[in-house]
């Protein structure tokens, strides 16, 4: 038996990465298309069931056309079962209400529900305020078969909505605990006989979701369970630190950024983080860099985490407006980081440069 475990697509997410509207629209279409591609992968690889461990949608923002595309993709692969567990964002969406669902789409509810196959039984439950403590006393178990459980929440040692108490799931005969909620792949031992696994999201949406994204392929044969992560995203997100210490011009900074990201595909999305010690007189402006690098990747942004490196004594007798400004800021009670940001911004204004806020 072959099973796909996926989660957290967050279809129709607002994509808070400062994308332009056109880019966000393209990216949302790509995330939807990744689900369609997953259904085609399931069909072409003789997958028996796809476990969707929550947050297929992203709250009330979901569009009717998106829901229709999801249901149509499921209908087009009738030999694959789709076992869907609503997550905390799905509940806000109510995407499938008033819809005629395909026969091969089966939904878990707020009571334990199990689906039996020749080699395995797959059980799941939506966690609510009413069942988040009692559900651990009623975990289904089928003797003689591989038992898989689907839940959506943060692992820990407490009970609650969106809280998965691992301690209370141990020694329950669970071979594979399929989880959603965290957006990075992770697999660890649950107990002596089973594992728990987050598939992570299918596509990264923000720069807190960098790296490979995809799904987990589970294979069950003669009572043995094997699983592997399958990269599947059409784009990767990267956060790249760029040390600009000692650099004084935009041209030098651009070369440093290009060198640091030389191995990254032009199709990907990149956040450059400027770091290191910067001379206050350096002519490096983030808006200018952003414009110069705009065409290098599908989407890029620059985060400025430079610190100022200079001797305050050098400005002690400076009678210019710049010297007066720097002395005023340095005499304040702000943190060094706050002073650095204010001085850098002020110097950009004093020199007539573009201001990066």
- Number of beta-strand segments: 19
* CA(first)-CA(last) distance: 54 Å
Overall pLDDT confidence: 91
CATH T-level fold name of the largest domain: Purple Acid Phosphatase, chain A, domain 2
Structure classification: alpha/beta
- Looking at how many chains there are and whether they match, the oligomeric state comes to single chain
Strand content range: 25-35%
Describe this structure in words.
The chain is α/β, with parallel strands linked by helices and 357 residues long. It folds into two domains: 2-231, Metallo-dependent phosphatases (Purple Acid Phosphatase, chain A, domain 2, 4-Layer Sandwich), CATH 3.60.21.10; 237-350, no CATH class. 24% of the residues lie in helices and 25% in strands. The chain is built from seven helices and 19 strands. The chain has helices spanning 21-44, 64-75, 88-93, 250-260, 286-292, 321-330, 336-350, and strands spanning 2-6, 49-52, 81-84, 105-107, 113-116, 120-124, 146-152, 154-156, 163-165, 176-180, 186-189, 195-198, 214-221, 224-231, 237-243, 269-275, 277-278, 299-304, 307-308. The strands form five sheets. A six-stranded mixed sheet has the order 4-3-2-1-13-14. A six-stranded mixed sheet has the order 5-6-7-10-12-11, with no helix packed on it. The protein has a three-stranded parallel sheet with strand order 15-16-18, covered by helices on one side. α4 links the parallel β15 and β16. The longest helix has 24 residues, at 21-44. The N and C termini lie far apart (54 Å).
